From TrEMBL:
Entry annotated with the keyword Phosphoprotein: no
InterPro entries: PI-PLC_domain (IPR051057), PLC-like_Pdiesterase_TIM-brl (IPR017946)
MF annotations from Gene Ontology: lyase activity; metal ion binding; phosphoric diester hydrolase activity
One GO BP annotation of this record: lipid metabolic process
PANTHER family: PTHR13593, RE10370P (PTHR13593:SF103)
Lineage, top ranks: Eukaryota, Metazoa, Ecdysozoa, Arthropoda, Chelicerata
Name by which UniProt lists this protein: PI-PLC X domain-containing protein 1-like
Reactions listed under catalytic activity: an N-(acyl)-sphingosylphosphoethanolamine = an N-(acyl)-sphingosyl-1,3-cyclic phosphate + ethanolamine
Keyword Kinase: no
Keywords of this entry: Disulfide bond, Lyase, Magnesium, Metal-binding
């Protein structure tokens, strides 16, 4: 009996002591829990390219390009994406900051046990004209927000749709000593073949395999692209720049023919082209867009003159190359960097020569500011599985051993044939239809085993997360590109490439800026 009494007393004593101990703990201030942001956001908003689904009418092929009254010119749907979130979470779309009212959402979807996925909403993205004179570049949120909610409808993670006009300079501490040929740089494929989507028009049907972007070059810069693949064309029909009896040859027999050539060159206007189709995007406008962006920011831009095409029976001559080069020099010369194989971002910023212009045409002896053409890693396939195998084999190995800038072409190339004709007549959307699916796969691989990439060119930039991936890859502490090969005192060739410095005899009169 005494033993039981002692045991009871001991139990009561321990219980009361423990109560005092836990009450002391509970009475102390509980620290506030803060969510540490990951290296990159695990949620994002992308924009699907608009696709027309009108029935085919043969007579429309020969009609005017008119938009029907019932067409929606803003038919670009928002897509929500999530990566490595908690299973069975809720992903919601808002047109206001979710903190104001978390229950007032536009659409929501459950991850249903999947930590990664995507969901195409029925909400359309309005056209944002970033290149208007009154516009101010900002990386603030625009129109829409995305949030991950737990079972108690509490916000776990938050992000929004926005541009990235300053991302390079904001990452300068990570990029300062990195060579341009070793950094991860997002860009666009066929950058000049852009046009705003017009639902249900003949234009959308015929050019669905020609257009690869739906934002202007300035807007592409605003949204974070820093590499631009441009294909130049000279179309005599556009400006009637060439007389019918003009010879397109570099060998001239008389001064009269040379004078005729000079008169034609003065009126030359260059246009963006894809294949045999000349688009409505002029190089004058593209150069102006790049200049205005360089003047407004401290970003570094790469321009790749990848192909040259001429309409009709004409072909490219040295004169046309010189005219195109003078157009770029007049507009962008003060920003052009002289060629240096292992140039770093820090050197470009210190010299304020923040534009790299390369060309596939052998003109490098004419100016120190003409860079050799990048190495293009192009699978030339319309199968996603073949594209992945090709880049698996080539990408990292080529980037590591290349002394030039390397461009990964992460897009499918449609094959000309009955399949393309059938899809065109049925209005399946062309490049717009298969690009989002391709970009989803490419984004996932660039986050992982393909983080070794240098320049990445994509179709329809807003349907890809490549800019966010680039920011994450370039700012990770263990990124192999963040080397220390260059000391802070590294010098840089201060060669000036400006309109005032003439490096060629004036075959065509230089055009001044307006």
């Amino acid at each position: 009996m005494r033993r039981r009494l002692r045991a009871a007393r001991l139990f009561i004593y321990c219980f009361l002591s423990a109560g005092v101990f836990f009450s002391d703990i509970l009475s102390t201030a509980v620290p506030t829990w803060k969510c540490t942001a990951p290296a990159y956001s695990r949620i994002s908003l992308t924009v699907l390219p608009g696709i027309s689904h009108r029935r085919f009418r043969f007579r429309e092929l020969f009609g005017d390009r008119k938009n029907p009254e019932s067409a929606d010119t803003e038919e670009r749907f928002i897509e929500m994406r999530w990566l490595n979130i908690e299973p069975n979470s809720t992903i919601a779309l808002y047109n206001h900051p979710p903190e104001q009212n978390v229950n007032n959402f536009l659409e929501r979807v459950s991850s249903t046990g999947q930590s990664s996925g995507y969901y195409a909403t029925n909400v359309t993205m309005p056209r944002i004209q970033c290149d208007k004179p009154a516009s101010v570049l900002t990386n603030d949120c625009l129109h829409f927000w995305i949030a991950v909610l737990n079972s108690d409808m509490e916000i776990v993670e938050l992000d929004c749709f926005r541009g990235f006009p300053f991302w390079m300079y904001e990452s300068r501490e990570h990029l300062r000593k990195v060579e341009v040929r070793r950094a991860f740089i997002p860009g666009t494929h066929n950058s000049g073949t852009y046009d705003y989507y017009e639902s249900g028009t003949v234009h959308s049907r015929v050019t669905q395999y020609v257009e690869c972007q739906d934002e202007s070059v300035f807007n592409q810069l605003f949204y974070g692209a820093r590499y631009f693949e441009l294909r130049a064309s000279f179309s005599p029909k556009r400006r009637q720049a060439r007389p019918a009896n003009m010879f397109c040859d570099d060998r001239w027999a008389s001064s009269q023919q040379r004078t005729s050539r000079e008169n034609a060159c003065r009126q030359a206007t260059m246009w963006s082209v894809h294949g045999s189709f000349v688009t409505s995007s002029s190089f004058d406008q593209i150069a102006s867009d790049i200049r205005r962006f360089l003047e407004a920011t401290q970003e570094i831009v790469l321009v790749d003159l990848h192909k040259f095409k001429i309409s009709g029976r004409w072909w490219w001559t040295t004169d046309l190359h010189l005219e195109l080069w003078r157009l770029l020099i007049d507009e962008l010369g003060e920003f052009m960097a002289p060629y240096k194989e292992d140039v770093t971002f820090g050197e470009l910023w210190r010299s304020n020569k923040r534009l790299i212009v390369s060309t596939i045409h052998p003109m490098h002896h004419l100016s120190p500011c003409i860079w050799p053409a990048p190495l293009h890693i192009w699978a030339n396939t319309d199968r996603l599985s073949e594209l992945e195998v090709f880049l698996d084999t080539r990408l990292c190995a080529d980037v590591q051993k290349s002394k030039r800038i390397t461009v990964a072409k992460g897009q499918l190339t449609p094959r000309v044939g009955l399949k393309m004709l059938r899809n065109t007549l049925r209005n399946r959307g062309g490049v717009r239809s298969f690009t989002p699916g391709t970009n989803r796969v490419m984004d996932r691989l660039y986050r992982g085993k393909w983080a070794c990439a240098n320049v990445v060119a994509v179709d329809y930039l807003l349907s890809s997360d490549v800019v966010r991936v680039a920011i994450a890859v370039n700012t990770l502490p263990d990124n192999p590109a963040n080397n220390t090969r260059f000391p802070s005192s590294a010098s840089f060739n201060q060669t000036t490439c400006s309109p005032a410095k003439s490096f060629l005899p004036p075959i065509c009169k230089s055009r001044g800026r307006s």
